[in-house]
Specification:
alpha+beta; 32 strands
C-alpha cells in the first residue's frame, strides 16, 4: 500500500562502460539526513521504516541518479528530488541486483555544479545475519529472558542494506542520524546524542498511523534519538546500536576524549580492562601521529553476534565479545593480550582508514596494514613487558612467508574488479604483509622521518581519500630532507616492488672465504620450488651481521636490478671461521640460503652453549628459513634437523614457537601415516626438557603468571608435549579435568589453571567419554564469559566419537542451537582439523555444502577458510582428485571464495609433493636423531592403540552415514 518492491533489471540488460562495478560519479553526496524507526520485536518480524534525505551536487549534466540499495522496499511514489527553486519528476526506478545499483530516471537533466535534495523513503524487516543492519540476541543471566538488539556491520559494502547511499569509500559525506526505538532501549551512534523526543521524526513521510500497523504499539512507547552531525566519512563507517546494554565510563584523566564501554548488563563487570586500555592507547596515538582525535567521544561496544573481531566505525567501535571483554577469573593471559591488541588496532584506524580513507578497496592494505603495525606500538606503550613490537612482528612475518610463497597469493595492492570479491582480500596479505612492509619502512627510514611523514600525510588528506602513491610522496619528501635513501632511490621505487608484485624473494648467498666477500642473487621464493618461472625482483634492504659484530649494522640495499641476471658482490668483515647472518632483525620478508660452510658455522654456534650470540630475531629467521628451504629441497634435512635440535635448550619463546610451528607442518603431513610415531618420538626428545622446565601440566599451576612470554612458553610446550605423548602429560590433563568434574559448584570453582585450560579440555575430551563431553557442554552453556565459551567451543571438537562430532557439526548450521552463527565456521574448521574429525568433517562438507552455504548467508570468506583448512590436510592425489571433482560440481557456492580455494588447492599440492619427495628421508632422519632417546614402554602401546583407532575411524565414519554408528560404538 505504500509502494512497490524495486524492479530488478538483469545485469546483461544494462549497458555499462569500463569499471561497470563503480558508480558513475555524475552526482556526489555531501550530507545525509538519515531517519530510521525500528521495532525490536520478533512478533512484528523486526519491522522498520526509514527515510534518507541526501544533499547532492551534480558534477556534470545527467538525467539519472545512480546509488546503492539492497534488502528493503522503496516507496516509489514518495521519492522526491528538488533544488532550491525547482522540483524534478522521477520517471523510473530500477534496481540492478548484480551491483545493487538503484537508478532513478529523471524527467530532465540536472545542472552541473547545482545542489539538490534527494528524498528516499523505504521500509522492510531486519534479518538475522551478521552484516548490514541486523538482529542479535542473548539470554540475560539474571532474568533468563531472551533480549534482542540491533547492530550494524557496514564494511565493506553493506551500508546499502541500511539505507540508500553512495556506498563506495570515495564518496565521503557528513551524516545526521535520528533513530526511533522502544523507550526501554538505548540508541548509540557515531556522534554524541543531541536530543531525545517523543515526536515521530518521520511523520512527514511515515505518519505514526501507518507505522503502527506494523509495530502494533502506541507512540507513547517510542522515543526518537537525534545525534550530532558527524564529520565527513565514508558510508562503511556509519554505525548505530539499539539495545538494553549498560556502560561504564573510562577514568577521565586517561584521555581528553570521553570513553564509554558498553556490554550486556550481566557482563558489564568484564569491561574494566578495556576502559583503561582504550583511552591510554588513544592518547598515545594522538602523540605518535601528532594529530588530535577529532571526535568528542569514543564508544566501544561488545556485540553477542559479530562476524569479525571488531569494526572501526568512527566514534562507535563494535567488537565481538571475546575482543573487548576480559574477566580475570575466566579469561586467560592470551585473551587479555587479544583484547589489548584488537582495541589498539581499531583505534589506529581512527586515523588510518577513518580520517584518511583509501579511494577504493584495492588499497585496503593502507587501512589494515597500518592498523596492524601501529597496534603493536600501542600495546607496547600500555603493556611494555609484553614486548609486542617483536612478538607481533614475528607472528606477522611468519604468516606472510607461508601464504605469500604460493603462486596463488596476491599483491598487497590488488585490483578489485567485482565488489563481491572485496571480502577475499581481508586476509593475511592485506593485514600482515601490509604491517610487515610498514615496519620495514619505519626501520630503513628511521622513526623520526617515518613519523613526520605520517603526520604530513594525515594532515594533507584529512577527511579525504588517498592512495599509496600519496603516502610514498610524503615519505620520500621527508627522507630527502634527512639525507635521502641509498642511491637516491625514492620510497615509491622501493615500495612498488613490494606492494605491486606477488610474493617475496629468496637470496642465495655464496661466500668467498679467502676474500671476505660474498655474492648474492635474488628470485621469487615458491613453496612448489621451481615449477613457476617469474621475472620478479625487489629492492631488498639488507641487514647483515657478522659473528664478531657487537652492534647493529647499517642497512645496505640490493636493487631490483642487482642479483637478477648476474650475482651481486658484497664485502663483509667475517673471517673464514665466522658466520655471516642476513636479516638478523627481520627487517623485511625474505628468505636466505647460504653455502654449506656458512650453514654449518651457524649450526655449530646454535648447537653450542653460545647460541645466544645469534640475536633472538636472527634465530627466528634461521629456523624459519632452514625448514622452508628443506621443504623445497634447497637445504638438506640433516642440516635442518641438526639446527632444530638446539631448541631443547632454547629459553626464549619466539624462536621456540617458530621451530615448533615449522615442525608442526611435518606433523600435519605425517599424522595420518604409519610414520607418525617416529615424529612423536623425535618431538618427545626435543621438547621434554623445556616442557618440564617451564612447569608443564605436572606443576598444576602457571609458574610465572606475570610474564606473558613465560606463560606462552608453558602453554605451547604443554600442548606440544601432549601431542607427542610425553609421559605424564595427558595423564595430568585428565586428572585436572576429573578434579574439575568432582568439584562442588564447577561453574564457580575451576581448579584448572586459566592458561592451561584449552589444553586440558581438549585432551580430556579426546581421551574421555561422552560424560566428559557433556560436562564441558554444560559448563559452556552456563558460563557468562565469552572467552571461556570460546575455549570450550573448540575443545568440544576434540571428541573421537563420530556421533558426537556429527551432532556438533549439525548444530553449526542449525538456528537456535548451542552454536551461534558467528562461531559456525570455527566449529567446522576445528572438527576438520582434528585427527578423527577430519574424516567426518570432510564428508559433512561434501554432502551438506548447500546447507552450509545457506547458513553462512553466502559469506565466502568463512566458507573459504573451511576449504583451506580441509585442503591443507591433504597428502594424497586421490584426496585432491576427489575434491576437484566435487568442487567442479558445486562451484556456484564459491563465487566469492575462488582465491581461498585456489590457495587451498596449491597447499594440497605442496603437501603431496613433499610426501612423494621427502617423507622417507625425513622419517629416517627423525629416527636417527632420536635413536638414543629411551622411551617409557607405555608409549609404544599407546601409539599402537592410536594408530588402530585412526584406521577404524577412517572406515567407521562411512557407516555413520547409514545410521548404524551407534552399533559400532557400543
Amino acid at each position: 500500500m505504500w509502494g512497490t518492491v524495486l524492479c530488478v533489471v538483469a545485469a546483461s540488460s544494462l549497458v555499462m562502460g569500463e569499471g561497470e562495478y563503480l558508480l558513475p560519479g555524475d552526482v556526489i553526496p555531501s550530507h545525509y539526513d538519515v531517519k530510521l524507526a525500528y521495532d525490536v520485536d520478533p512478533n512484528t518480524n523486526f519491522s522498520f521504516f526509514g527515510v534518507v534525505d541526501i544533499l547532492l551536487r551534480a558534477k556534470r549534466p545527467t538525467s539519472k541518479v545512480v546509488l546503492h540499495a539492497q534488502d528493503f522496499t522503496i516507496a516509489e511514489e514518495k521519492i522526491s528530488l528538488r533544488s532550491d527553486n525547482d522540483v524534478y519528476q522521477v520517471t523510473g526506478v530500477d534496481l540492478n541486483d548484480t551491483y545493487n545499483f538503484l537508478t532513478l530516471q529523471l524527467d530532465r537533466e540536472l545542472k552541473e555544479d547545482d545542489s539538490y535534495h534527494l528524498t528516499l523513503p523505504f521500509f522492510g524487516n531486519l534479518k538475522l545475519g551478521l552484516d548490514g543492519v541486523y538482529i542479535s540476541s542473548y539470554v540475560d543471566k539474571d532474568t533468563k529472558k531472551k533480549e534482542y538488539l540491533i547492530a550494524t556491520q557496514f564494511e565493506a559494502i553493506s551500508a546499502r542494506k541500511g539505507f540508500p547511499c553512495f556506498d563506495e569509500p570515495i564518496y565521503k559525506a557528513t551524516f545526521s542520524i535520528n533513530i526511533g526505538h522502544p523507550k526501554d532501549l538505548t540508541a548509540v551512534s557515531n556522534m554524541p546524542l543531541k536530543v531525545s523526543s517523543g515526536d515521530n521524526a518521520l511523520e512527514n513521510i511515515w505518519p505514526w498511523e501507518v507505522m503502527q500497523q506494523s509495530f502494533g504499539k502506541p507512540r507513547t512507547k517510542y522515543v526518537w534519538d537525534e545525534f550530532d552531525k558527524s564529520v565527513p566519512m565514508s558510508t562503511y563507517l556509519v554505525a548505530f546500536v539499539v539495545s538494553s546494554f549498560a556502560y561504564v565510563d573510562s577514568p577521565p584523566q586517561l584521555s581528553s576524549t570521553k570513553f564509554r564501554i558498553w556490554a550486556r548488563n550481566d557482563a558489564i563487570d568484564q569491561t574494566s580492562y578495556a576502559a583503561t586500555v582504550g583511552p591510554r592507547v588513544l592518547s598515545y596515538f594522538e602523540k605518535f601521529f601528532n594529530v588530535t582525535f577529532p571526535l568528542p567521544k569514543q564508544d566501544m561496544i561488545a556485540i553477542p553476534d559479530f562476524s569479525a573481531g571488531a569494526m572501526e566505525n568512527w566514534g562507535l567501535i563494535t567488537y565481538r565479545e571475546t575482543a573487548l571483554l576480559y574477566d580475570k577469573e575466566q579469561s586467560s593471559f592470551v585473551n587479555k593480550e587479544r583484547v589489548a591488541e584488537v582495541i589498539a588496532h581499531e583505534l589506529a584506524h581512527q586515523w588510518f582508514g577513518n580520517l584518511v580513507t583509501m579511494k577504493w578497496w584495492s588499497d585496503l592494505w593502507l587501512n589494515e596494514g597500518f592498523a596492524t603495525f601501529v597496534a603493536s606500538l600501542g600495546v607496547m606503550n600500555v603493556e611494555p613487558t609484553w614486548h609486542a613490537d617483536k612478538s607481533y612482528a614475528v607472528s606477522n612475518i611468519m604468516s606472510v612467508l607461508n601464504l605469500d610463497a604460493l603462486e596463488s597469493s596476491h599483491p598487497v595492492s590488488v585490483e578489485i574488479d567485482n565488489p563481491n570479491r572485496i571480502s577475499e582480500i581481508f586476509d593475511e596479505i592485506s593485514y600482515r604483509k601490509g604491517s610487515t612492509l610498514i615496519r620495514m619502512m619505519s626501520m630503513f627510514l628511521g622513526e623520526e622521518v617515518f613519523r613526520k611523514a605520517l603526520h604530513n600525510y594525515l594532515i594533507k588528506h584529512s577527511y579525504g581519500n588517498a592512495e599509496q602513491d600519496d603516502l610514498w610522496a610524503e615519505l620520500t619528501q621527508e627522507a630527502q630532507k634527512a639525507g635521502g635513501l641509498t642511491a637516491n632511490v625514492t620510497v615509491k621505487e622501493v615500495m612498488d616492488t613490494w606492494t605491486k608484485q606477488t610474493g617475496y624473494p629468496i637470496l642465495e648467498v655464496q661466500r668467498d672465504y679467502s676474500e671476505k666477500s660474498l655474492t648474492i642473487s635474488q628470485k621469487r621464493y615458491l613453496s612448489l620450488g621451481g615449477s613457476f618461472r617469474t621475472n620478479s625482483a625487489w629492492w631488498v634492504p639488507l641487514s647483515v651481521l657478522c659473528e664478531r659484530d657487537t652492534m647493529a649494522q647499517d642497512v645496505h640495499w640490493l636493487s631490483d636490478k642487482e642479483g637478477v641476471d648476474k650475482e651481486h658482490r658484497f664485502e663483509h668483515g667475517a673471517s673464514p671461521d665466522e658466520w655471516v647472518l642476513f636479516n638478523y632483525n627481520m627487517i623485511a620478508p625474505y628468505r636466505v640460503n647460504y653455502d654449506a660452510r656458512n650453514w654449518q658455522l651457524l649450526v655449530s654456534t646454535l648447537t653450542s652453549d653460545k647460541f645466544t650470540q645469534v640475536p633472538v630475531m636472527g634465530r627466528v629467521q634461521l629456523l624459519s628459513d632452514a625448514f622452508a628451504l628443506a621443504w623445497t629441497n634447497k637445504l638438506d634435512y640433516a642440516t635442518t634437523l641438526q639446527l632444530a635440535s638446539y631448541l631443547q635448550h632454547e629459553d626464549d619463546y619466539l624462536p621456540l614457537m617458530t621451530g615448533l610451528n615449522a615442525l608442526s607442518k611435518i606433523e600435519n603431513v605425517l599424522k595420518r601415516t604409519p610414520n607418525y610415531g617416529a615424529y612423536q618420538k623425535f618431538m618427545r626428545r626435543l621438547i621434554r626438557r623445556t616442557y618440564e622446565k617451564s612447569g608443564g601440566l605436572a606443576s598444576k599451576k602457571i609458574l610465572n603468571g606475570d610474564d606473558l612470554n613465560s606463560v606462552k612458553m608453558q602453554v605451547r610446550t604443554s600442548s606440544t608435549a601432549c601431542r607427542a605423548k610425553v609421559p605424564g602429560c595427558e595423564e595430568n590433563a585428565i586428572q585436572l579435568f576429573e578434579q574439575w568434574m568432582n568439584t562442588k559448584n564447577p561453574d564457580e570453582n575451576n581448579p584448572i589453571p586459566l592458561d592451561l585450560r584449552s589444553i586440558v579440555y581438549c585432551v580430556a575430551i579426546e581421551r574421555g567419554s561422552v560424560r566428559h563431553w557433556r560436562f564441558a557442554l554444560e559448563r559452556r552453556r552456563r558460563t557468562n564469559v565469552a572467552a571461556a565459551k570460546d575455549q570450550l567451543l573448540r575443545a568440544l571438537s576434540c571428541s573421537r566419537d563420530i556421533w558426537i562430532l556429527a551432532q556438533y557439526l549439525e548444530w553449526s548450521i542449525t538456528d537456535g542451537s548451542d552454536v551461534r552463527r558467528q562461531d559456525s565456521a570455527s566449529v567446522i574448521t576445528a572438527v576438520i582439523s582434528s585427527d578423527i574429525g577430519y574424516y567426518y568433517g570432510k564428508e559433512f562438507l561434501y554432502s551438506r555444502i548447500e546447507d552450509i552455504y545457506k547458513a553462512f548467508n553466502g559469506q565466502g570468506r568463512r566458507l573459504g577458510n573451511i576449504i583451506k583448512t580441509l585442503l591443507n590436510q591433504f597428502t594424497t592425489q586421490r584426496e585432491l582428485d576427489e575434491f576437484l571433482k566435487w568442487y567442479d560440481q558445486n562451484s556456484e557456492y564459491f563465487d566469492v571464495a575462488k582465491l581461498a580455494v585456489s590457495q587451498g588447492i596449491e597447499r594440497a599440492r605442496v603437501n603431496i609433493a613433499w610426501i612423494q619427495q621427502n617423507q622417507a628421508l625425513v622419517v629416517d632422519k627423525l629416527r636417527e636423531y632420536s635413536q638414543d632417546y629411551v622411551d617409557d614402554p607405555r608409549i609404544s602401546l599407546r601409539n599402537l592403540g592410536h594408530a588402530v583407532e585412526v584406521i577404524l575411524h577412517q572406515n567407521l565414519f562411512v557407516f555413520t552415514l547409514y545410521g548404524i554408528s551407534s552399533l559400532l560404538l557400543l
